[in-house]
Each structure stands twice: as C-alpha cells, then as structure tokens.
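A quick aside before the break. I want you to see a complete sequence-to-structure record at least once, exactly as it would be stored in a machine-readable document. Don't worry about memorizing anything.
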Amino acid sequence: MNAREACELLRMQHKGWNIDGPKGVLRHLNAAQDMLIACPANPHVVTETDEAELPSLTTTTGKKGPYACASTFRTIEKVLVKAGSTSALANIRSDYGNVLNQKLTLGTMVWFGVTYVMFPYAKTTARTNSAVPQVAFSVDPGTTTKTYFLFGYRRAMPLTSTAIPLTIMPPWDEEFLLPAASALIEGVNHGNYIDARKNVIELRRLYQKAASQNTGFSGAYVEPVDRGY
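That is the input. The structure line, written in tokens, reads:
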C-alpha cells in the first residue's frame, strides 16, 4: 500500500475529510506512522543495502568526536565492532568492567551470521529536530575506516505528500497503521485527541510484538557498568 491509497481508504472511512489541509487525513497518517515507529521493532533496524551488514561510521580520525551518523537513523542503540577486529578490540582496557573484583564480559550480537561485540566506550545521542544522531567516544577510537558498526532504528519518512513511500510496510500498514491514523482522526471528530493518542500507543505495543517476530539477529547485550563518562 502506498500513501495515496492509505489516504483514500481513510477518506472513505471518514466522510468530509480531504487529503491535505487542516482537515486532511495525510497529517494524521504521518502522525500515526511517527508514533508507531517509535519502538524497537526489528524491521526498522537500519542496514546497508545488503541486509547482511550493519552500517558503520565511515571513518574515525583519532578524535573522540562527536561523529554525525546517517540521517536515516532515528536512534542508535549500540556501537559494535566485528569479533576478531583486533585494532578496535585493543582499545578495550584489560580491566574493563572490573567491579568488586568481578570482571564483566562484553555483550555480543549475531546479525545474519556475523558476530559483533559491543564497544563499551561509546555514547550515542538520538535524533533531534535539528540534528542527526551522533556517536562520541570516551577513548581514542583510532584512525579507522568502517570499523565501528551501528545498531539502531530508522526514522519514518515524513509524509509531506502522498508520493512519499510508507515506512511501515505490509502487512502491518493495514493491520496497525490505518487503524492508528483512523483513531487519531476520530479523536479530532469527537474532541478526545489525547485519548486517541493513548490508543495509538497501545497499538504500538502490539505492532512491536508482531513486527519483532521478523528477526535477523540473535544474542544478548551485557550493559557496561562504566563507560568512562
């Protein structure tokens, strides 16, 4: 389904509404998509064109940063290096995670058969209205090319027109996106928009559960006690 088709279905459901303007369904379709996508659902993990590899910081220059990340990211959850990346792993202090004489292990993750190790000396900031997500290091990351990989979730493409592709794809567009947009429109019609947003948040929980059954990774993270900040 594309945005125009979604808008036409919403107009059929809500008589007297247009596509654009103050009483336009497109703005509520956009709002619903933004709300639904604000969850860690696996289909929205940002990947390279080939899903087998996560995106990376193109280069680091021996400075702690911050380094700007791709505009496709909404948020970056983890900074990773490939298992066996001796240059990056050498930056991890031998006393890492040594708390009360108990040394913690690094978290690992497998993505389409590739094993990544969490790099503990990195801090991420989420996207804002004026800036893309960023990564900063608490140790010198070295001068590298495509060494530090990013695990995070994509932002929804703003629906400024019906020509913009939907970010939430089938079958979840009909199962979750249309009902969410319809709920917001009903909220306007009946003067209970805040309650309508609460209903969309509940739909988001169900959407996350359904969408996350589609997975390409396994493994678990062990959150570091001290990142050096």
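Two observations worth writing down. Residues 215-229 have pLDDT under 50 and may be disordered. The helical segments are 3-13, 25-37, 86-89, 172-190, 193-211. We'll return to this after the break.
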